Amino acid sequence: MIKYTTITVKSEVKKELEKYKGEKSWDDFLLNLLREYIRLRRVKAAKELEESFTKEELDKLEEIFKQVKVKWEFKKPEELF
Prior knowledge:
The chain has three helices and no strands. The protein has helices at about 10-20, 25-50, 55-75. The longest helix has 26 residues, at about 25-50. The two termini are about 40 Å apart.
């Protein structure tokens, strides 16, 4: 059995949301909105992290990641855990 609930928002907020909702169901619209918000937060965090390193540090990290990847490629899957 599917359970439903009500989310109370101001009328102005609902009107603004309806402009973007279009013909989608509220379920689909709100889930898409949440997923996009999460995706953008991750992009922002990655960009901030990248900007916190110097070019030299990023180059060194890339080199280390390549070395680790090579090490992992030579191990059997059961050896990784």
